[in-house]
Amino acid sequence: MSKIAVDLMGSDLGYSELSKAVIQFINEDKNSSFILFGEEDKIQPLFADVDSKRFKIVNTTEVIPMEIKPLDFLRANRSSMYQAIKAVKEGEADAVVSAGSTGGFVVGSTILLRNIDGVTRAGLCTPFPTAIKNRPCVILDVGASNVNTGEDIYGFARMGRIYAEDITEIHNPSVYTLSNGSEEGKGPQEVVDAYELMKTRKLTGFKGNCEAREALDGNHDVIVTSGYVGNIFLKATEGTAGMMNGMIKKAFKRNIFSKIGYLFAKKGIKDMKETLDYRRFGGAILLGINGVAVKAHGNSNTYAF
């Protein structure tokens, strides 16, 4: 039975929304149990009807702030996030999930779980839906760091390729660097340096640069970039998908004829909405550390979490 440590503090929507997700997962997956970190008096009533053998609550009252320095994180050793990550370090849990501070989660996971030998920088990795159904595009780093070197990005490419093969099951995935042009030499220095490293070290599957407008066409399996750029790409993509869903809904509600048209297009619209729904990939896994650590969106609802 797998055991998952869950930090229930620090999210935008609070205990109720995240707890519903945990309870739904308990009901669907009989081979898992949970260690829940947060305020026991608020969590316990939400799990009143759940088999007590499937979860344990560890009472914590301290929340990690949005931005925190490594030394301050170590001092906050009674916080929900610290304790949840520590559970993985000590072998009490197989994985940790949090919708709290991204900065704190990356700092804490890196300090407590440590980087795998040979990894210069851990990176947050998430699959994105693409124009080809069931063929996601794996992108990293999407926010673990603001500044990265070419060597870091080269490392992201190696890890992203393994993730694409083993998790999304894409055979011989292609690898690209995200840039402002497809030509060699385009982009900031770290992208140019990463390109050169992948080229000279003959990284398997490396195809060159990729522009953002082509990233989700289904022909790019792994795309690597610095965390600052990757996080902007992530949020811009999510915002665009949300805007499109809203515009489509509004268009079909205009009049009786558009409503009738919706009945004919209903299945296609449903498929498109499911494809564009970023919540299907509810979290980003921190690749490159000695443990499974997944960072969910701060505004995760029950479905996403």
* Structural category: alpha/beta
CATH top level class name of the largest domain: Alpha Beta
Q: What name does CATH use for the topology of the largest domain?
A: Isopropylmalate Dehydrogenase
Mean pLDDT over the full residue set: 90
Unreliable stretches covering 5 or more consecutive residues = none
**β-sheet strand percentage:** 15-25%
Shape field: globular
| Total beta strand runs | 11
Domains, number: 2
Rounded to the nearest angstrom, the distance between the terminal CA atoms is 20 Å
Walk across the major sheet and give the strand order: 3-2-1-4-11-10-5-6-9-7-8
What's the CATH H-level homologous superfamily of the largest domain?
Isopropylmalate Dehydrogenase
CATH architecture of the largest domain: 3-Layer(aba) Sandwich
Largest beta-sheet characterization: 11 strands, mixed
